[in-house]
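Course assignment 3, question 2. Fill in each field.
Student: A.L.
Task: Predict the tertiary structure for the chain below.
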Amino acid sequence: MRVAVAMDEVSGVVTFATQSAGCEVAPGLRGRPLLMFHGDADEILPLESSQIVAAMAGVGELVVCEGDGHLLAHSATLISNRLTDWLPAVLGTPTA
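Answer field:
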């Protein structure tokens, strides 16, 4: 989050099991796309951490990975499918 805010060249941000600490700069994304993935069974960071970051940023999409923990080990297909659509749209590249 901090790197994206500091660099205007960043087109968008993808996060995984985001912690809210240190993301106070999220409003600095200034509307740039934000996509977050978080497991609702995360044993380290609660889902609310990503919800807080989304609220601070004021933009973005939070994809809740149902039944998954901190490593999102069971959500590879969900994550891959979502990124397959999201990345080309954000980067302005054609889809395969």
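Instructor remarks: The domain at 2-91 is CATH 3.40.50.1820 (Rossmann fold). The longest strand covers residues 34-39.
Grade: pending
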